[in-house]
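hey can u check if this looks right to u? its 245 residues, i copy pasted from the old doc so theres a chance i mangled smth
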Amino acid sequence: MCRPLYVILLCLLGMIAPAGAAEPVKLKVADPYLDMHTGPGAGYPIFHVVERGEQVEILKRKTGWFKIRMENGKEGWVPSAQLERTLTPDGQPIAIASVERGDFAQRRWSVGLLGGRYSGAAVMTAHVNYTFTPNLSADLQYSDVSGDFSSSQLLGVNLLHETFPAWRFSPFFALGGGGVHTKPRATLVVTDDRTNAFASAAVGARAYVTRRFVLRAEYRGYVIFSSDEDNEEIEEWKAGFEVFF
């Protein structure tokens, strides 16, 4: 006996796990074919094609991709756009939800672009974030600062901790370090470029917007370590968007 449609939907949404169930969720291919990729992304090669009429089982979901198993045991990944055109064994169409907030809590990678002010000067920051656990992640950030009297480039690594990663509005704090290269603009007084190490601490928040987009804002304090022990303290705020996958 096949499962009710609502149970199948719960499995597709990740609320229950079909792989360990006594009766695996099965779907019948209605399209002429279903492309199976080696991984969850269009960049992974297609290694097999499931033909119309064959049945597949849903194993798990990763954002817009589903891992399936054929009746012969072969496993692969298919995009949700193709899986939406499959049918239940009794001929009912499948409704698959788009990327939701729960996918954000289960993300691994995200990239973002932030803009704001660094000690009164304009700053743009690009970053890549990798999530180790729901609460702990790491940022690699590159910032470009354009001021009236100098320009700076910062490269740093940060550890972020989110206390409530499943919330739509998720606060975080971060500790990091790296290096800053400062180049003075042409003036009457000749000064040298300088490179210094820095440490930083930040507080901020991520807010899930829709699909794969997240709004991120943060306030960060820097301590720039100088060779003459005259350390400099700098404040920065910035906001922008992240895309997760």
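The longest strand covers residues 194-210.
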